[in-house]
Amino acid sequence: MSRLRLFLMAAALGLAGLAVQAQPQARAGAAALAEYRLGAGDVVRVVVYQNPDLTLETRVSETGVISYPLLGNVRIGGLGVGAAEQLIADGLRNGNYVKAPQVTLVLLQVKGNQASVLGQVNRPGRYPIETADMRMSDLLATAGGVATTGGDLVVLTGTREGKPLRLEIDLPNVFGPNGDQGRSNDVLVQNGDVLWVDRAPIVYIYGEVQRPGPMRLERGMTLMQVLAAGGGLTQRGTERGIRVHRKGSDGKVQIVQSAMDDVVKDGDVVYVKESLF
User: Fold this and answer.
1) Alpha-carbon distance 240 to 257, whole Å?
2) Are 126 and 158 in a shared domain?
3) In a structure prediction context, what are the per-residue pLDDT tens digits for the chain, which is 277 residues long?
4) Which pTM was predicted?
5) 39 closest CA partner among 127, 110, 133
6) Is residue 38 part of a domain?
7) Is 37 helix (H, G, I), strand (E, B) or coil?
8) How is 136-185 classified by DSSP, letter by letter?
9) Could you tell me the residue range of the domain that residue 188 belongs to?
10) Is 253 within a domain?
11) CA-based end-to-end distance of the chain
12) Is 86 inside a domain boundary?
């Protein structure tokens, strides 16, 4: 076998070995990125193997500190579970309290990182952020999803890098056929965020229609579709007598002469007059 062939085989094996080593490192990096960060109010249990007197169940203080036997105040707020275990183990080892401590920290209650969901959802309230990669869709699903009275628009407010954040997110765009472009709006949720789900737009119809009253206004709904959703005109109704009452930017109501294929807006009131003949 020639020297060139031997060199190429060795190079190929070396690259394969590097790839095998890189994969566990990439997985470890992704796991570290998604690890939950301990916060104030979290309840934890610390266990040291074969040292039951060092078992402690406590709550993380507002300053991110726990009081641990032999070590005193230990600041674990902002650390991942693995980093907090290592910090306590190093303290026990360096203080010559335990020769080779094996520390396990169990997160019993998540209170330090929470987000709120308000508005038209099935279960509004405050929910824990248990992983660092929790997204808007995950938070919305935790709250039971959008209620039947909810619309397509949600608003996420919070703080990023010390600056106020307000994002209007169109749900059909997130879950539509846009791929990565739409999913980029499925933003990461952080501690203190508030997700508001607005009500669905409504149009009102009355007069000579089969089913008068308020109805959900679907996106791009035309006047003809609104009339069809209302069961159509009665025998006494006439298309010539249809009037759309719309509130302008100045707050005054205007009467709009709309064609059947014109798009209806949120809050419009459609009135169907009675035929005189």
Assistant:
1) 10
2) yes
3) 444 444 434 444 443 443 434 344 434 333 434 578 898 889 999 999 999 999 999 999 999 999 999 999 999 999 999 999 999 999 999 999 999 999 999 989 888 889 999 999 999 999 988 777 889 999 999 999 999 999 999 999 999 988 999 999 999 888 777 655 557 788 999 989 999 999 999 999 999 999 999 999 998 999 999 999 999 999 888 888 799 999 988 889 999 888 899 999 999 999 998 887 6
4) 0.67
5) 110
6) no
7) strand
8) HHHHHHHTT-B-TTEEEEEEEEEEETTEEEEEEEEHHHHHSTTTHHHHTT
9) 114-199
10) yes
11) 103
12) yes
By the 8 A CB rule, do 80 and 32 touch?
yes
Question: Of the candidates 57, 84, 109, which is a domain's last residue?
Answer: 109
194 and 210, same domain (yes or no): no
Amino acid at residue number 113: N
Return the CATH number at 213: 3.10.560.10
Which pair of structure tokens corresponds to residue 35? Answer: 């690890």
Location of structure tokens 């679907």: 218
Q: Could you tell me which residues come within 8 angstroms of residue 103 by beta carbon, excluding any fewer than 6 positions away?
A: 46, 47, 48, 49, 85, 86, 88, 89, 92
The H or E element that residue 45 is part of is strand 43-48
